[in-house]
Every structure is written in C-alpha cells, then in structure tokens.
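Appendix C: a fully annotated inverse folding record. The material below is reproduced so that readers can follow the format used throughout the book. The structure is listed first as tokens, followed by the designed sequence.
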C-alpha cells in the first residue's frame, strides 16, 4: 500500500487500456474533472484521444459514471481546492476551548498539536430521531469510515472530527436535552474525536463554512482536508464506500490512479492483477494454508462474491458444478467474502467467515482484504436493486487473462454447467450453432402450396413459392409491433433494393405477419415500406408449425432472416441493418454469433 501511495501522490499515473466499445465520453469527463488545472494531463489526454478512440464496454461506462458522482463539485462557501485554517475553525478563541473530546476518554482531550501533519475528516452528522431504516443506513455508511479510521489512525496520518448538526425539519425543533441524548448515542459508535455538544456556536459556524445546506442536513457528509488546510473533498462518503483505506488520502490524483488501475485490471485481466496486492500474492485454503496466485494463472477462475444476505441455494448448485469441473477442466473458484453490504454488515465477522468458508471446497481471499473492495468496484457487486437484474455472484477470469466476464452466475443459472466457462461469448456461440443445426430454409416457413400476396401499384395478385426458387430472399417478420428503431433499416433497404434490381445481387423482400391479427401497425409498415419494393406479404396462422418455428428462431417474434439463392441461411437477427457502403448481399459484414450476442445482452441485461 505504501508503494502505491508513493506512486500516486508523486503524480505518476498508470496508462489504461484503450480498446473499449463506448465512445469514452464519461471517462474523458472524469479525467477532465480530476485534472482541470493540470496542463500536462490535458495534453496527454488529448494525445491519447488523437491516437485511439477511447471506448469502453457499457459495464465500465456505468462504473465510471457511478465513480464520477463521488467527485462532482458541489456549490458551497468553500470549494474543493480552497485552504482553511483548521486551528482557528476547530479551536476558536472566543470559547476558550483548546481541545476536542473522545467518547472513550473525556479526561484526555485532543489538542491542536495532536492534529498537526494529519489529514482531517470533518464528519458532519445530523441529530435527528431516525426511523429504523434511516438509522441502519447511516450506521452502515459510518461503518466504512470506522474501518478506514482503524486502518489509518494507528499510522498517525488521519484524524476524524465529529460535528453534530442540529436539524430543524418541517417545524420540528428538538429540546436540547433530547439533542444531547442523540449526540451521545451517535458518538458512542465513533472511535474518533468530536467538538463538544456544548460548543453550539462552533458547530453552527462550521455548518456555514462547509456544504451543510438545508437540503442535506438529514444526511451525513464527510469533508476531507489535507495537513496544509487544502480541501480535497466536499463529501467523501461514496469514495469511502468504494475505496476504503486504499483511497487515502482521498485526493483527485489518488482516485484517478485507482480508476486507471481498475480499468487496467479489467481490460488486461489476470489473476495477479485482480487478486494480488503489495502485501499479498496468495489466496487461502480452508486449512489457512497459503496458495500462490501463480498456481491459478493457467486456470479458468471464478470469483464467488458471497455475503451473509444470501441463501445457500446458489452455493449448493455451484458446488456441484465445481466438483465436476475441477476434475475434468482447469477450473478454480476463489471466495470473495463481502462483509460490508447494507443488509450483511451487522451479521459478518471473521469467525463467521471461517465458518462459512469451512463449508466450501475452494479457495478464498483473506477476511476484509482490501482487494475485496477493488473486486466489488471492477465487477460491480452487488449490482442491481432487484431480482430483474443479472446475478452478480460469479465473475469469470480466463486462463492467463484471456477474458473476463462479470455475468458468470447469470449464465450458469440460465444455461447450467454445459455453458462452461460461463461467458457471454460461449453462450452466443452455442446458440448460433443451435440455429445453424436447424438448417433453416425458406420453405420451412410456408407450405408448398403457399401463395404470397404481391402489390404492384394498384394491382394485387398471388405469387407461388415455386416462383421464388433460385432467388435471394430477405424475410422480415413483424407482429402487432414493428421492429424497434427500424426507420433507418427500411430506408436503406429500399435504396439497396432499387440499386440491386436487375443485377446479380437482386433480391426479393417477404413480409410475414400473423394472419388473425393483422393490425394497423403491420399494414402501415407493409404499405409504407414493403409495397413500394413490390414486396411479398405472407400472413401466417397463429399456432401453425410455421408460426411456432418463427418464435423458435426469433424469440421476440420479429426480426430478419436472409437466404442466399441456394436457400442457405445467411443472416438471422432481431436488429436488422444495412451496412452503409456494403454492396454485397446481404449488405452486412457481421456474423450470426455477433447478432446472437447482441440479442443475449438485451434479453438478460448483460451490458
């Protein structure tokens, strides 16, 4: 940790990987915010943007957006970057008070000299009769700060000062005796110092100097100030939660450094980058023996995020899979015991950790290891707020860092052990192979005596299936809802149709809809988009074999199937598109596997 702090505090920054999928706007926004006044960083960032298009997978865009909320500047009397005289603020002469107090030892006051050379956190905490939910929320947030304090205070580099904020909300003004009771009740959980409750004037003055507005008087905030009086953060609560003591000294340079490290670990993944720390290059077995991380580099490693909020159902299922895969495949699981989630932090302890770990056959990171917070950030555990979100409990790392995927648990839940190594690409490849095995042909979607409806101007007539033999076909399926965001596709399709008419790339367009429920949207889509190309229409009866096949091949009931002149399936997608400038049928350079992967991401929210 000391080596990392030295690197980051000296201004050295690690390069991050540039091979991403998003446009990188959030990443650039954060770096700009972190380095507003650093021309060297601005110059370097411009050079990076010129060399490569910073793009990221959506998971990292979301991660960075979440991180950006912790460093956004807030409007207040004192801005980040301002300097304050802490001696005057905390030890005002007008009260003749030259000390702070601690809960455990009121007879040994903390004086100004004891704070010299330390980073100071001013912890503004509102005195209010909390509901049980609010109380647990704020106690949980305070737990993060307590862990940071216990890690850094013994090193002599950090002190926290509790500043009680009196709340007058909806006309409720509490009596001083009740306020003092709430003060003592909260102070009892705090191992740090406080301004005495009796010094009301000092507490009120500090409220006016820092961002303790009426809007946030019911929510604790933590202001970070360095030994020179420089304000580093207005409210570091989210930084404390995400980074713990590794975020020290909680400056913009340190957070930037950690962001780079997280991105590097995710986009150049390896067991050592993700699991090792300056203090540790091993994991533990349940006999407390150290297992070198080098032993895992050539394996598929699943990081199993577990907290006391979970039931045992998933653990039992993944344990069955582990016992099979560990024998037949190069597979290992590493337990990441998460002790600090909102519902689990009160039930977690080292004793319980060893009890839980003793029931599992795999390896584990040590209890409360700082790397656990890093892995939670990188793989976004615990993820969504309800069961509709993907299950975040298994993150997969490939041998020698060949790949990383945070949706291992969701893939295992939906596809079972056959989806090993539990990555999105593995599932997409398998589904694409299943589609190819169907050996789809045009005549599978209609009987031999089928007649298609063709509109040519004002004339409507029938076209037999036999008349389409040897022709390239674009089969477009729509139900009572049209293909989403399809305006550009239809525009490009009509353009290609007339460009290719009479050439070797000529093709026919068939529009399939449900026979019993031909709705206004379908007819409008056909009249507007298909009829101008003299396209064919085929109503399909609900419940027929053809109808069932459509829903088997296109799960949403809409999409595009493209057949070559010999009847081979060239493309199957629910996201029809025509590549600009591509004049070779079917005017698309992707693959079936790529189309399936995109569909899976939307179906399961695997972004």
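Designed amino acids, in order:
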């Amino acid at each position: 940790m000391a080596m990392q702090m030295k690197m980051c505090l000296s201004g050295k920054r690690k390069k991050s990987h540039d091979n991403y999928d998003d446009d990188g706007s959030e990443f650039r926004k954060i770096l700009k915010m972190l380095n507003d006044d650093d021309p060297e960083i601005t110059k370097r960032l411009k050079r990076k943007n010129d060399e490569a298009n910073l793009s990221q997978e959506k998971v990292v865009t979301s991660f960075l957006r979440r991180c950006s909320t912790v460093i956004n500047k807030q409007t207040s009397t004192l801005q980040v970057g301002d300097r304050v005289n802490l001696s005057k603020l905390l030890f005002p002469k007008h009260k003749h008070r030259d000390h702070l107090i601690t809960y455990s030892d009121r007879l040994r006051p903390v004086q100004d000299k004891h704070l010299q050379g330390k980073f100071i956190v001013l912890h503004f905490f509102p005195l209010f009769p909390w509901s049980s939910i609010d109380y647990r929320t704020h106690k949980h947030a305070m737990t993060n700060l307590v862990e940071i304090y216990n890690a850094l205070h013994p090193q002599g580099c950090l002190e926290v000062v509790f500043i009680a904020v009196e709340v007058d909300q909806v006309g409720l003004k509490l009596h001083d005796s009740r306020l003092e009771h709430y003060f003592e009740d909260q102070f009892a959980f705090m191992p740090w110092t406080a301004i005495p409750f009796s010094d009301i004037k000092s507490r009120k003055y500090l409220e006016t100097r820092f961002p303790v507005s009426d809007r946030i008087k019911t929510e604790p905030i933590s202001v970070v100030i360095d030994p020179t009086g420089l304000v580093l953060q207005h409210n570091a609560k989210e930084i404390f939660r995400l980074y713990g003591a590794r975020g020290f000294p909680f400056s913009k340079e340190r957070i930037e450094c950690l962001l780079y490290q997280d991105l590097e670990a995710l986009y150049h993944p390896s067991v050592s980058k993700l699991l090792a720390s300056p203090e540790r290059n091993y994991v533990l077995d349940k006999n407390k023996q150290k297992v070198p991380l080098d032993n895992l580099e050539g394996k598929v490693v699943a990081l199993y995020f577990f907290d006391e909020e979970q039931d045992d159902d998933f653990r039992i299922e993944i344990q069955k899979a582990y016992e099979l895969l560990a024998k037949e495949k190069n597979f290992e699981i590493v337990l990441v015991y998460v002790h600090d989630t909102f519902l689990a932090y009160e039930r977690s302890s080292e004793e319980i950790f060893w009890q839980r770990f003793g029931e599992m056959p795999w390896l584990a990171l040590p209890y409360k290891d700082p790397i656990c917070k890093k892995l939670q950030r990188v793989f976004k555990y615990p993820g969504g707020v309800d069961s509709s979100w993907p299950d975040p409990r298994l993150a997969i790392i490939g041998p020698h860092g060949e790949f990383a995927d945070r949706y291992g648990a969701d893939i295992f839940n939906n596809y079972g052990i056959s989806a090993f190594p539990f990555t999105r690409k593995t599932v997409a490849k398998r589904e694409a192979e299943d589609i190819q095995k169907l050996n789809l042909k045009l005549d599978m979607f209609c009987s031999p005596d089928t007649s298609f409806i063709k509109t040519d101007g004002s004339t409507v007539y029938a076209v037999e299936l036999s008349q389409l033999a040897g022709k390239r076909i674009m089969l477009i399926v729509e139900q009572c809802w049209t293909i989403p965001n399809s305006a550009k596709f239809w525009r490009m399709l009509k353009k290609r149709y007339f460009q290719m008419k009479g050439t070797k790339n000529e093709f026919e367009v068939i529009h399939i809809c449900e026979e019993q429920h031909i709705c206004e949207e379908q007819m409008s889509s056909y009249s507007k988009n298909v009829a101008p190309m003299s396209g064919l229409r085929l109503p399909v009866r609900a419940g027929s074999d053809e109808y069932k096949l459509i829903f088997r091949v296109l799960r949403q009931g809409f999409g595009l199937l493209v057949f070559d002149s010999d009847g081979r399936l060239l493309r199957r997608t629910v996201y029809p598109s025509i590549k600009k400038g591509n004049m070779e049928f079917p005017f698309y350079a992707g693959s079936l596997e790529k189309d399936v992967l995109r569909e899976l991401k939307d179906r399961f929210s695997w972004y």
